[in-house]
Amino acid sequence: MQEFHWPHFSKKPTLIGENVTLRPFQSEDWLVMNEVINQPEIKRLTGSVTSTDAANKKQTSEEEYLTKQWYDTRNQQSNRLDLAIYANHSQEVIGEVVLNEWQESTNTCHYRMLISQDYQNQGLGTEATKLMLAYGFQELNLHRIELEVYEFNPKAKHVYETCGFLNEGTKREAFLFDKQWVDIHLMAMLESDFQSTK
User: Fold this and answer.
1) Count: domains in the chain
2) How far apart are CA 25 and CA 12, in angstroms?
3) Do residues 19 and 87 lie in contact, with contact meaning Cβ atoms separated by under 8 Å?
């Protein structure tokens, strides 16, 4: 049986692209991220809530504290890689990319990304994803990167397809939002897929 080595998640790189830079979180970034993750549409599209009412609900002071604590500790994590998406032209943080849930048996990681609504539809998510894929396959030596995307988020699905992710199936009616069943699409990219897109 092939043995895989734990990826070097403790190293938090800076990955520079033409329009975005992926970098470790800094002390004040949590303030921006707190605004981004609390945008109602972001909460809906990421499956963070199960109703429109919950998406529009105002954040509590306790939730704000937990958000600060979360982003303050991202650089200390050795079992996952969280990087801020920094827009080069506006010089501000606009979202995040994450590789987590590494599976030793298959050398597979889960990927997720979110970008502020103010910066969507500009190709920034595509560039950020490509930067993260290159790092995952070339530096972390991953075999497979996978993700899930909700049926009501076709823009994200298009981004992932553009980057080379392939559809692997659908979890039918696997999520409930506003009492309506929603499908979840399973997508993945292999290291060999990545090499063929270069």
Assistant:
1) 1
2) 9
3) yes
